[in-house]
TrEMBL record:
InterPro entries reported for this sequence: Bact_2-comp_sensor_kinase, CheY-like_superfamily, HATPase_C_sf, Sig_transdc_His_kin_internal, Sig_transdc_resp-reg_receiver
SUPFAM superfamilies linked: ATPase domain of HSP90 chaperone/DNA topoisomerase II/histidine kinase, CheY-like
One annotated GO molecular function: phosphorelay sensor kinase activity
Name of a matching Pfam family: His_kinase
UniProt protein name: Sensor histidine kinase
PANTHER family: SENSOR HISTIDINE KINASE BTSS, SENSOR HISTIDINE KINASE YPDA
tRNA processing listed as a keyword: no
A Gene Ontology cellular-component term: membrane
Gene this chain is encoded by: yehU_2
Signal peptide: none
Source superkingdom: Bacteria
Length: 345
């Protein structure tokens, strides 16, 4: 039988990456739509309330759908047009009883390992039907990326399957069918190039994460955002075409991660890389991949200010190194003179 500790683990299992991305999404939405932000906070509260405390082991299908819908609404805000959701539950089945946390791990798996890896629009559909004395629940995504899992990454689904089989018999549980996948590339958005500016390219698969960063960078008088990309496939081409000085790069993206993307760039024309992620566990690997800096989501503006200050300092050094030798000597002597003057006051 499923141990009590396994049941508690299933109830308490919350992906920290989801939480950090949810907070980052809400932070971005607050700026432009306070009403939507308030609704997202309510969805997040519902999600955690049901994750952390259920009154009994069995719940109604309507209660399970409320839990899953709270999760999906936050993910829809995060991915915007890249995620579509359809939930079709007949009213006559809404009060059917089933074990709590039957749907959430499966839906989360469909997003995390399925639709979030697509370059085009992801779709998740949830439906229910009665077949004789059986309640059939179907969770379908259009990614076609399912791989059988036996390790910790599949813990939630494995526990759900185990619990259903032990409770009702081997005729019950989870079955998975998968068809081959497909993907479609998107376009690059560019702006006019300026002189003497720090050219920035943003590559992140989440529209609101890009917006959050864009709004802050646009307030900087010496920063020019030359382009935004929603995946590494676009990003590689944009780096070669736009020659940015700085690349703000998300790590977890569909198909090709930010870490993998850096390895595909021309070392001779590689910009300063500032990695963005919800997890600090990638830090060592990021700096092995020549990262200039590493920012955790949700991005702290004071921390970002420090990154920009360091970038400006490095850019200034680079500008000096590109001057002819006699002009370098003149510029350096002037800098020393200014420092000496300040120190003498």
């Amino acid at each position: 039988m499923l141990t009590q500790s396994e049941i508690k683990l299933l109830h308490a299992q919350v992906n920290p990456h989801f939480l950090f991305n949810a907070l980052n999404t809400i932070k971005a939405v607050i700026r432009r739509d306070s009403e939507q932000a308030s609704q997202l906070v309510q969805y997040l509260s519902t999600f955690f309330r049901k994750n952390l405390k259920r009154p009994s082991e069995f719940v109604t299908l309507a209660d399970e759908i409320e839990h899953v819908n709270a999760y999906l609404q936050i993910e829809k805000a995060r991915f915007q047009s890249r995620l579509q959701v359809n939930i079709a539950i007949p009213q006559e089945l809404s009060q059917q009883q089933l074990p709590a946390f039957t749907l959430q791990p499966i839906v989360e798996n469909a997003i995390k390992h399925g639709t979030s890896q697509l370059l085009d629009t992801g779709r998740v559909a949830i439906s229910a039907r009665r077949e004789g004395q059986h309640l059939m629940l179907e969770i379908e995504d259009n990614a076609g990326l399912y791989q059988p899992v036996t390790n910790a990454s599949g813990l939630g689904m494995n526990l759900v399957d185990k619990r259903l089989r032990e409770r009702f018999g081997d005729d019950y549980g989870i079955s998975v069918a998968c068809e081959p996948d497909s993907y479609t590339p998107n376009n690059v958005t560019t702006t006019m190039e300026g002189r003497g500016m720090i050219k920035v390219l943003i590559v992140d698969d989440e529209p609101l994460a890009r917006e959050n960063l864009r709004v802050f960078l646009q307030e900087q008088s010496d920063i020019e955002i030359v382009g935004e990309c929603s995946n590494a496939v676009e990003g590689i081409g944009a780096v070669h075409k736009l020659r940015p000085d700085v690349l703000f790069l998300d790590i977890q993206m569909p198909r090709i991660s930010g870490l993998e993307m850096v390895g595909m760039l021309d070392p001779e024309h590689r910009p300063y890389i500032v990695f963005l992620t919800a997890f600090d566990e990638y830090a060592i690997k990021a700096f092995e991949e020549h990262a200039f800096d590493y920012l955790l989501k949700p991005i702290d503006e004071a921390r970002l200010e420090k990154t920009l200050a360091r970038l400006r300092q490095e850019r200034s050094k680079q500008d000096v190194s590109l001057l002819p030798e006699n002009q370098q000597a003149l510029k350096l002597s002037l800098v020393r003179g200014i420092v000496g003057f300040i120190c003498c006051k």
